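Figure-free illustration: sequence to structure, shown twice.
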Amino acid sequence: MTKENGNSFSSFLARKNIEISAKRYGIDALSAMAQGLFCSLLIGTIINTLGTQFHIGFLTDPVWIMKSGDQAIPYTVGGLAVAMTGPAMAIAIGYALKCPPLVLFSLATVGFAANGLGGAGGPLAVLIIAIIAAEFGKAVYGETKIDILVTPLVTIGVGVGLSAWWAPALGAAAMKVGTLIMWATELRPFMMGILVSVIVGIALTLPISSAAICAALGLTGLAGGAAVAGCCAQMVGFAVTSFPENKWGGLVSQGIGTSMLQMGNIVKNPRIWIGPTLASAITGPIATCVFHLQMNGAPVSSGMGTCGFVGQIGVYSGWVADVASGAKASITGMDWLGLILICFVLPAVLSPLINMGCRKLGWVKDGDMTL
């Protein structure tokens, strides 16, 4: 490429507001995607949990029944929000990339395809594919007199094509995390508690689905308890540690939403991840060896942590089922003490203390965790 052609290409990218940079893709887009995830999957999960636990009819009753052949799929309010996870993430990414309207709206289809085909790697697939589709859409926008046709066709065509090509492989790659988890479950409780807690906790914060991985693995029992510990260490750890920067909004959005909101900041300074991750390495073996915390509820709850308190409700429902079956005599005070300490108290204490050490070393500074 000649210097003149290079300048022309750079001018074209600048004119189209296409900025190929780690900040635009690794921080801006990723941070926006986490907000899209919160406004769909996580808020839907919270709505479903509230409806189920408090027996709120308008939250548990189907508002729409989709018929597909002989099947009828009911959707609650929360279920509709969860179903829109892919589109919400993709549109959020498009917003961060400053897409024009025709590109932004077309990304709804791209996100739906990438998330659906990506399985456990759905969020990662949406991140990669939505970025590429958005930039292609921006490149052709305004270049023809029939933008209303060309822009959506290019954006959706590129996005759905890449989804069919890449998303299943990204999902399979995400499930490789499951191989590590299953290997760790075969170790003695102490080491298993450390590894499962750390691995699942990291998966929760990364743009992959820890809940889908745990569900696919059928992760229950002591290993499920360690997974809950790891997820809580990340969510509560980040929520409490970053409270001086993010106040109550950040406490709620991370503590009962998702620690993935910090991924953009982690890209900028990975050392902010030390506190929650080391906290999970401590709470995991305490859960397995001291309190024998088990997840005997739905396996998906093992990967949810404090999101809508689904992890804690899963542990409790497991206790109730065990008592009903005779496997457990009763729910004891030690059970409740373990659940509260592992899920809330220890992460809220350990993570800020470890982060304080990182601050003294100059690894973390004010503003590094600001959302």
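We now fold a second protein in the same way, so the two outputs can be compared directly.
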Amino acid sequence: MSARIDLHTHSNESDGTDTPLELLNKVAEAEIDRFALTDHDSIAGWQQIKDLVPSGIELVIGAEVSCQTVDALSVHMLGFLFDPENKALIDSMNETRGNRITRMERIVGRLQEAGINISVEDVYAEVSEGATIGRPHLADAMIRKGIVSERGEAFERFLHNRSKFYIPDASPTPEEAIRLIKEAGGVAVIAHPFASLRGRIISSEYLESLIDAGLDGIEIFHRDHSEGERDQLFALVRRYALLVTGGSDYHGKRKVNRLGENLTELSQWEKISERATGYTKGA
């Protein structure tokens, strides 16, 4: 049986619904051999379970770093196997998490101005202590208030990137995120870059500029990529000899993504491991 490697998952330390330990148990049930916990701008979940992982499963330190281009386009950068004590990277993620609070208050304000009965307190009620706040928490609050029936409806009607209610993150540029991850000894892989169903996407030309900035790889195997988008990305991979990853982008309840639905090939994982210099197991 080939290795089952899922390099994109979330816990309730960001916008997932499972605790890190619940996620670990579900990974075991799904017979996944290796998984990365890639909470948004946080390694708190990894810290909670790194010493609890059973034999036969490998937990990969990771994070999904929030980024924003100079023209306010949201980009997510997956970082793997970086040094968890690297001050520059951790400080940057902490700053982004703080900025998300102000951003959420502004989004809620816009919704209130449109007559939608939602408050910041409603959103905080959906956020685990210390978790990175995000739009999925707002979506969950809207479900609880009866404004929408599920997360997908909340994003389709109110929270997508082209919505009048949307406010971009105050976060590093993708180029800065790549630099921070790599200076921390990690490997930088852009998450679902051509997932057009999510809203505005970056251009092929801009993606090539990120390759020039040191991007190591592309998450191609993701449910939000069409077959045509995957073909475009594979063309870039072949041209620039990039790494290829896959992941479920699992968030738990209220999101249809299933653990292990998209995977990373063992040969690609081995290349990631060889390239990384940041994380030493047991540190």
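Summary for the second example: The longest strand covers residues 58-68.
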